[in-house]
Design a protein that fits this description.
Helix content: 25-40%
Strand content: 5-15%
Oligomer: single chain
Shape: globular
Strand order of the largest sheet: 3-2-1-4-7-6-8
Order of helices and strands: HHEHEHEHEEHEHHEHHHHEHEH
Largest sheet: 7 strands, mixed
Distance between the termini: 114 Å
Number of helices: 14
Radius of gyration: 28 Å
C-alpha cells in the first residue's frame, strides 16, 4: 500500500513537470521571423493600397483616354490600377496603343461594356447625339464593372490630372454617402466664366420643372448642381443603396415622360444623378475639378489659376483634341500619338 502511494506521488510530480514544461515553451517560443526560416512577407508594392481609376475609351476620341491616363501616371508614385472601359469594337485599338507606347508600364485592365443594359432606358435626343453614346453611362454601373474594390475613382475622358491622384483618392466620404462630387457653386473663381457663357449651375438647368414628376421631388430649382465627370465612390454604399437601380428608374421615366434632355444642362447622364444623389453626397476639393474648359472657344481662365488646378475638365462641345478649343497646350502636353495613326489631332494647320 505504501509502495502504491509512492508511485502515485511520482506520477503526479511527473505530470506537474510536464505541464510546466509545455507552458514554458509557449511563453518563451521563438518568433518564426527570428528563426532561420524563410518568412513569406508581402513586398512594399503589394502592401501599398491599390487605387482603381475608371476611364472610358470611346471610338473617335480614344486619344482623350490616353492623355488622361498619361497625366495621372506621370504625376503620382501611387499604386494605380486603371480600368479602361470600352465597347467590343474599340478594345483592341486601346490595348495596342498602350502596349506600344510609353504607357506599357502602367497597371491596367480592359473591361468590355455591354450596351444592351441600356436598352429601353435612353430617350433619343437629336440635339447632342454624342451624349447618348453607351459609354457615357458607364458611371451608373460601377459596381457591376469593378467588383473587388471598396473605393473607386471615376473620371471622364476629357480631363487631365496635374496633381497626385492619391490626394483625390483620399477624399473623405461621410457615413451613408455613396459618392463625392464637385459642387457647381463651390469655386468663386469659376463663377465669372459660368455667367459669361450662359451656363447653368442649378437644378433648373437640368430638370424640366414644368413636369409634375419633377415638382413632386420637392427640390428647389435654385439648388446648386454638381458635375459627375469626377466621382469618388464607395462601392459598398452604392450597392447597399441600390444606386444603379435608382438611376435606371429615372432613365426609364425620362423615356416615358421627357423629364430632362441635353438641351437643358448639356447632358443626359447628369440629370438622373442630380435626382438620386440630392443631399446625399460628399464634396471634392474644388481644385480637383476645374471644369467648363470646353464650353466656349473664346473664354479663358488665367494661366496662374490653371497652374494651381489639380484636375482640368474640358466638359462641353469644344474638346482639346479638336479645333477650335482653349488651353490645348495643357492637354497636348500629356497626349501620346497613336502608333497606328488612326487617331489624329485636329489643328488649324492640319
Amino acid at each position: 500500500m505504501a509502495l502504491l502511494k509512492k508511485i502515485n506521488q511520482i506520477l503526479l510530480l511527473l505530470l506537474v513537470l510536464t505541464v510546466c514544461a509545455i507552458l514554458y515553451n509557449r511563453v518563451h517560443q521563438v518568433p518564426s521571423a527570428l528563426k532561420n526560416e524563410t518568412v513569406d512577407l508581402e513586398s512594399p508594392e503589394e502592401m501599398e493600397e491599390e487605387i482603381p481609376v475608371v476611364i472610358c475609351a470611346a471610338a473617335g476620341r480614344m486619344g482623350a483616354a490616353i492623355a488622361a491616363i498619361s497625366s495621372i501616371y506621370s504625376n503620382t508614385e501611387a499604386n494605380v490600377l486603371f480600368y479602361i472601359v470600352g465597347l467590343k469594337t474599340t478594345i483592341p485599338h486601346i490595348r495596342k496603343w498602350i502596349e506600344n507606347s510609353k504607357l506599357k508600364e502602367i497597371k491596367f485592365k480592359v473591361v468590355e461594356f455591354n450596351p444592351m443594359v441600356l436598352k429601353g432606358k435612353i430617350r433619343q435626343d437629336a440635339s447632342r447625339p454624342e451624349l447618348l453614346q453607351p459609354l457615357n453611362f458607364v458611371r451608373f454601373y460601377l459596381p457591376l464593372l469593378i467588383q473587388k474594390h471598396e473605393k473607386v475613382i471615376y473620371l471622364d475622358d476629357d480631363i487631365i490630372v496635374q496633381g497626385d491622384i492619391q490626394e483625390l483618392y483620399d477624399t473623405k466620404l461621410a457615413p451613408g454617402h455613396a459618392a463625392a462630387f464637385s459642387d457647381d457653386c463651390d469655386l468663386p473663381s469659376t463663377h465669372e466664366m459660368v455667367r459669361s457663357v450662359g451656363m447653368q449651375n442649378t437644378y433648373m438647368g437640368f430638370l424640366d420643372y414644368r413636369k409634375q414628376a419633377i415638382r413632386d421631388l420637392g427640390i428647389s430649382p435654385s439648388t446648386c448642381s454638381f458635375n459627375p465627370g469626377v466621382i469618388v465612390a464607395n462601392m459598398t454604399e452604392w450597392k447597399h443603396q441600390r444606386i444603379t437601380k435608382q438611376l435606371e428608374k429615372w432613365m426609364q421615366r425620362n423615356v416615358e415622360e421627357n423629364l430632362y434632355s441635353s438641351t437643358l444642362g448639356g447632358g443626359v447622364a447628369t440629370s438622373p444623378m442630380l435626382i438620386v444623389f440630392h443631399r446625399k453626397y460628399s464634396t471634392i476639393n474644388p481644385m480637383w475639378h476645374i471644369r467648363h474648359l470646353g464650353w466656349s472657344p473664346d473664354t479663358h481662365y488665367s494661366e496662374h489659376f490653371l497652374q494651381e488646378a489639380k484636375l482640368l475638365h474640358w466638359n462641353g462641345r469644344y474638346k482639346p483634341w479638336d479645333y477650335p478649343s482653349v488651353h490645348t497646350d495643357l492637354w497636348e502636353h500629356w497626349f501620346i500619338p497613336d502608333p497606328s495613326g488612326k487617331f489624329k489631332l485636329t489643328r488649324p494647320d492640319s
